[in-house]
Structure formats: structure tokens, C-alpha cells
# Entry
Amino acid sequence: MIRHLILAAGTAFAMSGAAQACQPSYTVKDGDTLFSIAEAQIGDLTKWSLIFYNNPDLQGGSLLEVPVGTVLDIPCPEGSVQKAPDPTPLQQADAELTLVTASNYAPFTDWNWPGHGMVTELVNAALEESPSPIPYAIVWEGNWSKHLSPMLDEKQVDMGFPWFRPDCENNPEHSRCVNFHFSDPLVDLVILLFARADGSMRFESDSDLIGKTLCRPTGYFTHDLDTPDRNWLSQDLITLVQPDTPDDCFNMLATGQVDAVAVNEFLGVEKMFELGLSEQIAPLQRPLSIQGMHVIISKKHWRGTTHLYRLNAGLATLKQSDRYNEIVSRHLAHFWSKVKG
# Structure
């Protein structure tokens, strides 16, 4: 049975004890999950994401069913995250390639986060690893709505990040699918359900959510709730509440107005602690979905395929290197240290 991550009083996201003998390389055994491996190797099952993001081949798969025999890189606590943020020697103000992103999206993109965020560093590193790397500039525009139009659509900038890719295979008419090319995923973001910690909410299969009320703030994507194998929205199988902010969702959950909040792991954990709800609310272990974070470029851009080829080639090289793991591990460790104070 899938366990809930119960955040009981006095033990909220507490270490379950130092790992007895963390192995930098671990071979998955029958019955292992990322949660059990994190508990055994790192000493804290809540740090499963350190392993997930540290092993790019896992991304897009299941957190609960890791193939037996898979060899995982384990970011052991000692000495794994001491390096400084990557240098960015290719960045310059008058570069021929310009990318746009925005702040206030930690740990992914944030001007005040080390290295300006995990995804920002991954983009930097991928471009440095690309064939025949060229100088580039990054523009910070706080209004995300301007990124797609007019900035990318009118080629005021060349590329933007990080963006989710809709279900273009089943909804090819989606405006983002029609107008933009997507890079390979920089990282995959796990979307979880956050529920009251009394254990009454279950999510062991999709059928457990039929008739439930979920909360996700307005403006957030909903395509993962209406995939062809779910049709939760189109067939009115669930009720979706969409208030203005994540805070609204978590306050509604705490007062029993909704059954669960459906947001990414980082945002959910951050809000639990920020709003003082870590004893009342817990994330469920089964992922609701796993969504890739991409670089995008307008299909109108005359060099779109060239820029994407360069980025994807660099990203593929990066994902096979220790540098990818180091960047991810460092940012996740910083996130957890901030959450736990």
C-alpha cells in the first residue's frame, strides 16, 4: 500500500536518521521505490527528489516502480553539493542569441537564487556544451504573459524558458502547440496531490479521485487532468476549483472546502511551511503527473530548428555528465535547507 507522507507534529519533514552507509552508486532491488531508497541511502524519504532529478534517465517515469537492476547515482549528504554556481562565460549583453525568463519561480528561475535558479543554470550549461557554442544573453521579464506574445511571437527575443508542453499529440490545436517548438525536457517536474494529513484522502489509482474536488490556481495548466485515459474535466468526473493564488488553494484545503491541491512538489512544500500548515497537510506519494520543463521558440523564427538542435545536443551531452547531477543536487539541497530553516 502506498504510504502517505504524514507530517506529524514535531516530525514534519524531519530526518529519519542519518543514512547508515550511503552508496554513491546503488542498484535497484525488487520492492524498491525512490522513497525507500532515499530513506535508506540519504536518511530522509522526503528527499526522493534528490535522486529523481540526479538521474535524468528516470525522468518521465514512475517514482514507485523503478526497474530492478537500474543503477542510480545517489547524492550522498557529505561533499555532494559544495561547488559554486556554474560560470557563464558565454553570456554577454550584445549576443546574437537572446533568451527570456522571469524571476520568482524558485528553485527553477529566480534572480535572487544561487546561479539564478536550477533551470537557468541547466540552460547555461547546455548552451556551453552545445556544438559550436555561441554567445547569448538572458533577459528577465517579470510579466510571464509577455513572453509568448509579443516577445517570442514577434521575435523580440529568440527563445524562452521554462515552459510546460501541453498534450500536443491529443490536442494539436492548442495555441502553444500551433505556434511554438519545444526543446527536449530540461528537467521533469513532479505534480503531486496535497491533502489533509488525517489520511482519509487516497490516491492509489485514478478511480480514487472520481467525485473529488481538486484545487489548482487559475492560469495553471490543466491538461494532465483531462488526458484521454482520464477525461476528468470533459466528463465532469471531478470538480476543479481555481482560485487566484496557491495560498487560496491551501487555505481551502485546510478548512475542508476541497479534497486536495494539485501543484508541483516544490510549490506545495513551500506553501505548507510558509502558511504554517505542515502539521495539517501532507503530500501523497503517488504522482498526479510528471511534466517536462522546456525551452521554446516560435515556429516563425527563421533559425528556430538550428537553435533547438544546438540546445538539444548540448543538453544530451550535459545529461550524461557529472555536471548535470552537480547542478541539480546543489539546487535541491539549497531548497530543502531553506524549507527546513
Residues 25-73 form a domain with the Membrane-bound Lytic Murein Transglycosylase D; Chain A fold (CATH 3.10.350). Residues 318 and 324 are 6 Å apart (CA to CA). The radius of gyration is 20 Å. Confidence is low (pLDDT under 50) at residues 1-19.
